[in-house]
Every structure is written in C-alpha cells, then in structure tokens.
C-alpha cells in the first residue's frame, strides 16, 4: 500500500493566544481529491495554513509523503511538493501574468514543474493575457494564475482555499474541469469549499469540520445518505 500523500494527526493550532484547531485528524491518499466542509469559522482555512506551518503555533503530527513536518519551516514543507493557493490568491499585481509564472523557483523534489507550454495548454486565457498586469486580470483569470503558479513550481499536493468564491459560473466550470484533469494526472488535492455544488462532484471523500475539529467524514459514494447530516451541520 502506498504512503499517503498527507497524514494529519492530533493537529492543534493557535493564532496568538487563540486556540483554533483542537486535534484535527485526516488522511489524504495519493491522487485523491478531498474536500473540507464546514461553516465559516469552523477552522478549515486554519487547517490548510497549519499544514504549511503558517499559524503562530502548531502541535501534533503532519506527514507529507511520510515525512514528518511539524518542526519544519514553511519553505521546507513547500520543497516536499506542497502548493498552497490562498483565498486572497496572492499574485503580484504589478507583474504580468507570465512574470508571475516565471518568478517562483521550481521547488518540487523532482526538480521539475509544469513548463509554460503545459501551463498555457491548461489555461488558454493566461496565454492570451500573458502580458497583462496582475491587477488588470479578471477575478477568474487571477484565480487561474494563482493555481497555475503552484503547478509551475512543481507542487503535487495542492491545498486550495475557496478557489470558486465569487467567480462566474463559466469560470467555476473551467476550474472543475481543471481539477478533474489534475486528478487524472495523479495530483493530490485538498480543497476548502463553501460552494457545495462545485465540490460535491469532484471529491473522492469529505471531511466536515466544526469548532476546530473533524466531526464526520465519508466517501463520495455515501453522499446521498449523508445529506441529512450535512443539512444539519452546514445548512446545504
């Protein structure tokens, strides 16, 4: 049996003195798409940030491809092939789309990320807008650029935070197709999503968070029978 792409056990996290995560446990297998569901403030974004060591303090265990990372710094975790697409996207607004893609170094253990040609094949909009400044891109184009940048850097474990938020339906559909394609290519994806209709057809498994803990988890095949629980926990 292959080593899980991500193993989180007893993960606790703090911002200052605020104790946000209270023992999160989750596993993600190689090539899986896993979605973290929960109401705003449940701890989903903090879970992604804590995996990368971006909280003030964290305790527990976070293994990436079998490597314990709890005492590693963020750049060291990224070099294990972990890419993070934050909700605010974090692109450089004064640089062109192509400069945004060329700026980050390749950090993957293999030493290889997607070429510009591969990126533009996946994101034709970015090819057409490659000379445009980041702040002149549409919201959808900025989101595509944020995802493309971590693929360019060679990440194979993608942590995606609310990538569909505020985008037009046609862009959301394009992002869904992208995640399906990346999964077919063997990428592993952990998504935080408020848009249940976007996440539901894509995920292999779901974790539901409440008050900084995982309160239930289930496979995609169990989705219909779990809907009453989701209605109660999420109001979906």
Task: Note down, in words, how this protein is organized.
With 236 residues, the protein is α/β, with parallel strands linked by helices. Helix content is 33%, strand content 27%. The protein is built from nine helices and ten strands. The strands form two sheets. It has a six-stranded mixed beta sheet, with helices on both faces. It has a four-stranded antiparallel beta sheet with strand order 2-1-4-5, covered by helices on one side. α7 links the parallel β7 and β8. The model has no long low-confidence stretch (mean pLDDT 92).
Quick summary of this structure?
The chain is of the alpha/beta class and 236 residues long. Helix content is 33%, strand content 27%.
Descriptive labels:
single chain; 236 residues; alpha/beta; globular
List the helices and strands and how they pair.
Layout: E1 6-15, E2 18-28, E3 33-37, H1 44-51, E4 57-64, E5 67-68, H2 74-78, E6 82-85, H3 97-102, H4 116-122, H5 124-128, H6 139-152, E7 157-161, H7 169-184, E8 188-192, H8 196-199, E9 205-210, E10 213-219, H9 223-234
Parallel strand pairs: 3-8, 3-9, 6-7, 7-8
Antiparallel strand pairs: 1-2, 1-4, 4-5, 9-10
* Lateral arrangement of strands in the main beta sheet: 6-7-8-3-9-10
Question: How would you describe the shape?
Answer: globular
Order of helices and strands, N to C? EEEHEEHEHHHHEHEHEEH
The helix/strand class is: alpha/beta
Strand content: 25-35%
The count of helical stretches stands at 9
Number of strands: 10
Round the Cα radius of gyration to an integer and report it: 17 Å
Q: What is the average of the pLDDT values?
A: 92
